[in-house]
């Protein structure tokens, strides 16, 4: 999701990350991992049965409403604690913005609610929950078809019309929305192209070529191994109270916190220092 927003702002590092992400998808499709679920017999169990078994309310022996309200209360408590410790502060330009959409920053609470509400049109119009990593599979498969044989794994994401292309269209809309938001708020567009292989070019200039490319590969390689990304697992499946999704989100953010601190400690990305 962050990559899409950065693409909309013209961030050239994000372009490299997105292209490298397709490499990550291709590597996954050519590895034995792409067949691991089938080999293990995972696919022999109907999806409905797997979802039912993974439901948090079933595992706790309570209703969906009880499980959901309890989790909601816990999350509200965490949000309250974070806001008490490090409250959101609008920028000086936000306080004089002519409209809500002219603000450069939104309250994270408001932004989170908007992201969650995006599930409604997806479910009502498409009968699908939001996700984005499958779009990279569709795009990578299409790119492969132009130069070579499409790997078997990627063939599952092609040739199904709107069922294959709604996610790429969703990604395109996210990029367009980010561009519109940046334009309305007067945010800087077209960040500089990275000039070094490893180090960041400036405190807020982003990472060098190698780390940007490596990050892109790892993002989608990890997403395909997990069977979903931070949107599909962290928002969609988490909101459906599936216990594997809750565990994955905890692992995602736990690993991200450790990684951010390690990167900052090594001085690989000075821009991180101001955010920790």
Structure in words:
InterPro entries: Sulf_transp_TsuA/YedE. This is Sulphur transport domain-containing protein. It comes from Sexangularia sp. CB-2014. The chain crosses the membrane at residues 12-29, 67-86, 106-126, 168-186, 206-227, 248-269. It is a multi-pass membrane protein. By secondary structure, the protein is mostly helical. It has one domain. Helices cover 65% and strands 0% of the residues. It has 15 helices and no strands. α1 (2-8) crosses α2, α2 (12-30) packs across α10 (133-147) and α10 packs across α12. The model is unreliable at 38-44 (pLDDT under 50).
Short description:
The chain is mainly alpha-helical. It has helices at residues 2-8, 12-30, 36-39, 47-54, 56-60, 64-85, 92-95, 108-117, 119-126, 133-147, 152-155, 162-185, 209-226, 232-239, 243-266. The chain has one domain.
